[in-house]
Amino acid sequence: MSSPVSAKNQDALRDPRTLAELAASIKQWGREAGFAEVGITGTDLAQDEAYLLRWLERQFHGDMDYMARHGVKRSRPEQLLPGTIRVISVRMDYAPEEEPEHGDNTQAFIARYARGRDYHKLIRKRLQHLATRLEQEVGMFGYRVFVDSAPVLEKALARNAGLGWIGKNTLLINSRAGSYFFLGEIYTDLPLPVDEPASEHCGSCRACLDICPTKAIVAPYQLDARLCISYLTIESHQAIPEDLRPHIGNRIFGCDDCQQVCPWNKFAQATDEADFKPRHGFDSADLIELFLWSEETFLERTAGSAIRRLGHERWLRNIAVALGNQAPEPTIEAALEQRRNHPSALVREHVEWALARLRT
Question: How far apart are CA 41 and CA 195, in angstroms?
Fold first, then answer.
């Protein structure tokens, strides 16, 4: 955390009217910086901490050891950053202009959030800009910005800041903007007034539970990541379980099914952020073409993209599964044959599975 509130500002920041005006200004500056919405909350996450600990106890986090590594720092902001008493939470939309269907076809499906440039640097830069603007107003104060980069319960904080509710699919949903948005936070020692938490509006709807290809949403508000296609294709470094491979279809990086069917996403607004627009045809790329990319091509085409974190090996693993889920076709088998002797045992195993499936 940068320096705490300077002594000359402490008296001014005890005045409720001054603090209310400052909070309003922060929200205005946030909108000017490109955020769709800004909210402010405290640090009490006791109920969410209990939920997190139960989730971890059930091993729903799979191989994501980092979820448990930091203990309760994730649910206690003041332990992660001493002095924190408020969290400024922001939302930035990334909804695409169109919502194409993605059946099991020869086009790859990549989650919408990953089709453009990696959001981390862009949002972090704008959060820092917002914090700097605030520092110009109040002088030195304690803060730190976060964008999916530390043990932060961002969805719970955003809910408490009024940006949306956590839906049955465990994603944050906003009644005016659906769920296609990124979140970021500024932890701070400023005693700002807090916003009202968002209320829940899923009602009796269970569209997300019913559509999930692998039934990863095991109950309303409960996600077993070990079954989730996003986990299997992005987070997991292991072989994808064979019984789940047929359900992955043509999804090679993430899955948006539970968002696509959510009725609240009819309110999602298309982003005008150029960095979030699809690059390299990632909204309509051909599976075979992607599968035949060399490692050099993969690194070149995914520079500045969230996809690069996969590495070429897992990229091929995922696409091999997607190709194995297609209708038998000589060109698909020929492409798989080219990777049959790949140096990676992980790739070879998935290629053999795909060829066997196509030839059965």
Answer: 6
Active site residue 148: yes
3-state secondary structure of 140: coil
Domain regions of the chain by residue span: 7-98+111-188, 215-267+278-359
Task: Check whether 212 is labelled as a binding-site residue.
Answer: yes
How open is the CA angle 92-97-100, to the nearest 5 degrees? 120
Per-residue model confidence as pLDDT tens for the chain (360 residues): 555 555 446 666 778 888 999 999 999 999 999 999 999 999 999 999 999 999 999 999 999 999 989 889 999 999 999 999 999 999 999 987 765 554 447 899 999 999 999 999 999 999 999 999 999 999 999 999 999 989 999 999 999 999 999 999 999 999 999 999 999 999 999 999 999 999 999 999 999 999 999 999 999 999 999 999 999 999 999 999 999 999 999 999 999 999 999 999 999 988 989 999 999 999 999 999 999 999 999 999 999 999 999 999 999 999 999 999 999 999 999 999 999 999 999 999 999 999 999 998
- Residue in 93, 148, 189, 224 annotated catalytic: 148
Token pair listed for 79:
């332990």
Q: Is 148 annotated as a binding residue?
A: yes
292 among annotated binding-site residues: no
Encoded tokens for 160: 């408490």
